Amino acid sequence: MRFIRPTLALTAALLVAGGSLTACGSGSSTDSSGRTILHVEGWKGGGAEPANVAQVNAAFEKANSNIKLDFSYVPPNDVYQQKLQSQLLASTAADVIMVDPQKVQTWGKSGYLADLSGQSWAGGIAGPLKPFVSYQNKVLASPMELSPVGIYVNLDILAKAGIAAAPTDFPTLLADLGKLKTANQPGFAFPDSQGYMAEFAMLLSAATTVYQQTPDWDQQFMAGKVDFSTAFQTPLEQIQQLGADGYVNFKNAVGTDETTTGEPDFIAGKSAFYAGGSWLAAAIKKPGFKLAFVPWPGGETGTSPSALMFPGTMWAVNARSKVSAAAKAYVDFWSQSQNLAPYLSAEAAISPFQGGAAGTDPLMSTMATAYGAGKFALFPTNTWDLADPETKIRSILQGFLLGKTDVAATLTAIQSAAASAKS
Amino acid sequence: MFRRRGRYASIVLILPALAVYGLFILYPLVRGVLLSFTDNTGGPTDAFVGLKQYSALIHDPTALQALRHTVIYAAVVLVVQTGLGLSAAALLSRRPHIRRVVSSMLLLPALISPVMASFIWSYLYRPDGGIDTLLGDVGLGVLRQTWLGDPSIALYAIAAVNIWMFAGYSCVIFLAGYAGIPAELLDAADIDGATRWQRFRKVEWAMLAPSLTVNVTISLIGSLGVFDFPLVLTNGGPVGSTNTLALLIYRDIFNNSDFAMGAATAVLLLVLVVVVSSAASAVLRRRERVL
């Protein structure tokens, strides 16, 4: 008797532990009423980014009464990466998982993602976007959005300096900043503590000053045909000009955090210009001041700028899913424009499929027009600006902001960092 | 017969602890070391590459820079935190009526999570934040700095947050040491006419040796593995000036999916922590015996 009690306790503990482990896996495939259980994990659909995912999921369950959806929200960025990486290694990840271009490459290389090349929507992905969803010429993910990245402009502040509209070229941007300074109004917020504002600014400017002339510049770079030394001179000179003219204090900028300070300051009306993605739109619109969201005004007087698009969130199917048919049906559902619409609307994003519509948000009209006219570049997250090279480039750009390197030396360093992406 | 049964019983009793230790400490450690000899990128397959990761590590200027930052950071935190903790304990030991209240207040920052403390200090350190405003208000505007934006001071600014959090912790450990000093010894010193400084240097400092050992060891282990503060406050910047080894490990594994390099860096950090803290502990233990 004395030994039975601990033995029972141990057995119970093992059963509970075993049950927990089973529950974590993507294995259990049907519920009590015989419906297929489909496990889905994503970093949108909860927390600060509900993104109408629940609405689309409800529509999917309604249209597929034989499938029961088990959606799990996982906080984005590091938390998502840590959780999913472990689950994929342990074969306990969900049947459908949210990915981005970088994860398509790394998880595709590891064989975690199912080949979706044969799905009906695969041929409809917007042409320039295909490399971002593919690994070794296999389509491994279905894109959900193209998120514009640009400059948020507080038009109320501009009006106080007698400026009627957001600038569309670089000389006008400088002139507007001059007027704001004269009127004692706040100007351009350039927080760069985490290192991504300068990277944004460089790429935002490059959308017009580099990619407008050479849309396939990234591919040419990866092939060793072009380099940064001349091509990216203008973007860096434009950033430098902001400091030289006294519109941005770069030392302060490097000591100011983008997320905890820069964004809240813009929302609080403490700056007139702030660079960011469309994913910030919902938060930035809240105070209700008159707002514009425009491409970086990088061109010469009278020219119109190109937009920068971030090929962000995507759905992929776990290669080890036991219910791959249901998983593919879920991804198919999301790829249809009428189903994707609520998500695009919430995200203020543009459809990644050919002929796909933009969200209906008027704030996005300038970006949508640029996209419709083919005046856009894609964030180079699948070529030279991802993972380790991106971290190094951010650090190099901080040195540039602090005056430790000039334009030429900075471009040489960026060339070296970016070249490591070729290996 | 009884002795043999006792030996078996002790083995049986120690087995669960050994099993847990082996499963959760030794096994991951061995797997981590083995991982560092591969080219693993987070996938289920990899290839044995021998010492290639270690060779890349010692030739990587970013890693060497991070090693230097880690050592400087640990040294600064060790000296200042221990010094402040000791000073506060020395003052409080002579003021029993306020000791409990003040030591509890000093301990409060240690109860905040490091991430939350980092967020609080990121507001204080911002260019128009609390510290610069305070300096301006008290007429010390000349001392204003871009605390986290200047590569020459950012590491020390982060170390200050660490010290702010844990100096109270050091103080409490030293106070426990003070409580163990026999009153007769202090009385004897007073009767012999020792000054306050002489009493501290000749009696208290010697009697506090075990507390010093504990403080130094804990401080070294904590500060050599520092991660949360630089991640939240600067993400290793500006210009890599606050990169630490733990931050590199995190980036290698979770940003770059370079698990093997992350494991190699983790082994380097482990060796550093074990060697430095063991050496410090050994020296201080010997000092305890001598004293």
From TrEMBL, chain A:
The keyword Signal applies. InterPro entries: Bact_solute-bd_prot1 (IPR050490), SBP (IPR006059). Gene3D superfamilies: Periplasmic binding protein-like II. It holds the Pfam family SBP_bac_1. It comes from the Bacteria. Residues 1-25 form the signal peptide. Keywords: Signal. This is Carbohydrate ABC transporter substrate-binding protein (CUT1 family). It comes from Rugosimonospora acidiphila.
UniProtKB/TrEMBL annotation, chain B:
SUPFAM superfamilies: MetI-like (SSF161098). Keywords: Cell membrane, Membrane, Transmembrane, Transmembrane helix, Transport. It is a multi-pass membrane protein. Pfam families: BPD_transp_1. It is found in: Cell membrane. Signal peptide: none annotated. InterPro entries: MetI-like, MetI-like_sf, UgpAE/MalFG_permease. Residues 67-280 form the ABC transmembrane type-1 domain. The chain crosses the membrane at residues 12-30, 71-93, 105-125, 153-176, 205-227, 259-284. Belongs to the binding-protein-dependent transport system permease family. This is Sugar ABC transporter permease. The lineage of its organism: Bacteria, Bacillati, Actinomycetota, Actinomycetes, Micromonosporales.
